[in-house]
Amino acid sequence: MSHWTLRRAAPVALCAAAVLGVSSAAAQQPAGPAWTRGAVCYEIFVRSFADSDGDGIGDLVGLTRRLDYISGLGASCVWLMPIAESPSYHGYDVSDYYRVEPAYGTNDDFRAFVTEAHRRGIKVLVDMVLNHSSNRLPAFRAALRDTNSPYRAWYRFAPRPLGNGPWGGTSAWRHSPVRDEYYYGAFSSAMPDLDYHTPAVREEAKRIATFWLREMGVDGFRLDAVPFLLEDGDCNTGCPGTHAFLHEYAEHVRSINADAYTIGEATWGPLTELMPYYPDQLTSYFTFELSDSLMAAVRDGRASGLLGGWLRLQDTLPAYRYSAFLSNHDQRRAMTTLGGDVARAKVAATLLLTLPGLPFVYYGEEIGMTGDKPDERIRTPMQWRPGAGLGFTTAVSWERAQADSQTTTVAAQDTVQGSLLNLYRRLIHLRRENDALGAGRLVPLQAASPQVAAYVRRAGDHAVLVVANLGGTAVTNAVLNSRDSALAAGRYTPRNLLGGADGAPLQVGRDGRLHGYVPVRGPMGPREVLVLDLARR
Ligand code: CA
């Protein structure tokens, strides 16, 4: 959905402290589907990815032809923004939940895409918009027209606005174009909220999930705007009924496919607002707080505040149950936030892809595409190669490209060692192959310089050390210490996994701590990042 924030914590029985306080909670929960280990997901706006038939609109056949690119990137999964039939360009208001948007292709095109994705070991998640339908959904049209329609109970009608909406005031109550009455639509008059108190609506949501899992072959869903699913009395975000429905829905999804993966957009706010959505609702949620802290650290060149959220979550949840990202389809593009600085973008990518969780990469981020609000401008056509249609289309694209689209392309970076694209490829593959990066415990280190972030990812005897100079100036003495045990005792030869100089030998005593370890000889350059594999000798 478009931008929103939760105004207050949800009044639910399961309080955050109860979840956050249990340090071994993560270990007590079952491991995720096998594919999530070391995985990275790739978010795609189909309309902007690849146009196969020359109408200027990306489509499923075009996307299927680009699967080798996604596979080459190393992504284990894709999340497709809404692909069901919709009157809007973005698709977040569905007019037929059982049919692919005709501009994107047919249901058979989608099935062919899933088959080809699976052949490459790529899981497919699709956006599922449950909070509201399009005002063109036949059920809403019937409900609007006929007060005796059984579909009246699918929506919330009232003779006058009943209380406030999530943005304050009664603006969520929309006047009917048919008679003097109102219906509830939190986001717009074209997006009437479905009423999940009605059993038939809950059953329909489950039937739609079954259809996409069984008939279309998807591996799970990204659920849009979940805090707004149910309204209970004066409560309109994160209400008890919403948590109960998410539990019921997720249970149904798992009954169809035990390995199905669901990830929700639950809050743009702090992690504490996310905790009421665990442990027994969707599989996972996006962690906007982690993303904000990562981007702030890279933008400001300051390490403090980077790792706190990750450390709290790793003691609370298994890593496959939360997802950080640099930016998504509702936010200014990461490269724009970082002022067009490729060195900063590389630091951000390296942090995201070496920290725990199941990271998501927004299409085009891997080549440093730029873009700022309004929404259409952060969802512009993928820049495959220079030229009129950018390799995206042979026609005029549905949305004009960015100003730097002729130079910031896949083609320009594809074979260039040290390009942003090749850094993404390297890191995503490393995460899959290197168990410490894929599943290791995060251990924070203390750097003498406030502009240096340092941590270890440790899995048993194997570890990876990440040291990042976030600042724009060189650090002459990158001294590292650890408060607690960070590594098994022994002598280590740090090998540079990104192809630069190896690190200095490291001796760890019985206490497992680092004492004044300096990983590099000489100064650490501005925005320089080391990812060092620590093999014990
Ligand atoms: Ca097309």
How would you describe this structure to a colleague?
The protein is of the alpha/beta class and 537 residues long. It folds into three domains: 16-26 and 40-131 and 199-433, Glycosidases (TIM Barrel); 138-184, no CATH class; 440-536, Sandwich (Immunoglobulin-like). It is built from 15 helices and 21 strands. It has an eight-stranded parallel beta sheet with strand order 12-11-10-9-5-2-1-13, with helices on one face. It has a six-stranded antiparallel beta sheet with strand order 14-16-17-21-19-20. A hairpin with a 6-residue loop joins strand 7 (173-175) and strand 8. The longest helix has 17 residues, at 199-215. It is globular, with a radius of gyration of 24 Å. Residues 1-23 have low confidence and may be disordered. Calcium ion (CA) binds at residues 51-53, 55, 57, 59.
